[in-house]
Write a structure and sequence with these properties.
By secondary structure, the protein is of the alpha+beta class. It has one domain: Immunoglobulins (Immunoglobulin-like, Sandwich). 16% of the residues lie in helices and 31% in strands. It contains two helices and nine strands.
Length: 147
């Protein structure tokens, strides 16, 4: 009798741990709304800019909201500088560092100061938990030159 009580308690702990932790990486991504897109509103591939410069983010078919809001069809922008996400990144939060900028305050533009050189920029739209949609909702990856 004591053994079955221990087994039942162990099963309850396993169940509750899985429930409280939420979905794992494979379950975290959601599909973007049909026709949704993100884009650079003021830059195009091959542009030359002087630092500091403003980057404006555009979005259609999704609602830009603050991080933490996890309603379908909502999320916020992430700007990748000299980086790209791959299929291996699906289902995981976008990293936060100098090459992966998060705009969880629902910002739609940023002023960047970069040293002179050539850079690639790409927008990735993530949900309220910073997880990219699946398939990923990204802008064109553009190359700019900073003078």
């Amino acid at each position: 009798m004591r053994l079955s009580a221990i087994a039942a308690a162990f099963a309850a702990v396993i169940f509750l741990t899985g429930t409280l932790m939420g979905p794992g990486p494979a379950d975290a991504s959601q599909p973007p709304p049909p026709g949704a897109r993100v884009f650079f509103a003021n830059l195009k591939d091959g542009d030359t800019v002087k630092s500091p410069f403003v980057v404006q983010f555009g979005a259609e078919g999704v609602k830009v909201v603050k991080a933490g809001i996890t309603l379908p069809g909502t999320g916020h922008h992430h700007l990748l500088i000299d980086r790209e996400l791959t299929d291996d990144d699906k289902g995981f939060s976008i990293p936060a560092d100098d090459n992966h900028l998060h705009f969880g305050g629902a910002q739609t533009e940023v002023e960047l100061s970069l040293p002179p050189g050539q850079y690639t920029l790409q927008l990735v739209f993530g949900d309220g938990d910073h997880v990219p949609y699946d398939p990923m909702l990204t802008s064109e990856r553009i190359t700019i030159t900073v003078e």
